[in-house]
Write a structure and sequence with these properties.
Helices cover 21% and strands 33% of the residues. By secondary structure, the protein is an alpha+beta fold. It has a domain of 70 residues.
């Protein structure tokens, strides 16, 4: 099994729906993206994985400020990366519907 070195959370928005993806940087210099369908997609490098996420209009959660969030239709107070005991539990939390307008 690959050892992870660092996880980062990414999100995309569709109206008032937030779709999450987890980018996992591995010791070997490769990366995996766990997506909202529950699939783990392998990449040959972290840069390739980041580019794929950006091409799909995802942004890194840790890089967002409140103005960025509001431009996407939500407040940072409304969202947080999903937490689950394992990937199977996490899968159900990867798409988040938000309430009223931000």
């Amino acid at each position: 099994m690959n050892q992870s070195t660092q996880d980062s959370w990414w999100l995309a928005t569709l109206g008032r729906t937030v779709v999450w993806a987890r980018l996992r940087e591995l010791d070997a210099g490769t990366a995996e993206v766990f997506d909202s369908d529950g699939a783990t997609l392998p990449y040959d490098s972290v840069d390739t994985a980041r580019a794929a996420l950006m091409d799909a209009e995802f942004v890194e959660y840790d890089g967002l400020d409140e103005d960025d969030a509001l431009a996407r239709g939500f407040s940072l107070a409304e969202v947080a990366p999903p937490r689950g005991g394992d990937d199977a539990a996490l899968r159900a939390l990867m798409v988040q519907s938000l309430g009223g307008r931000a």
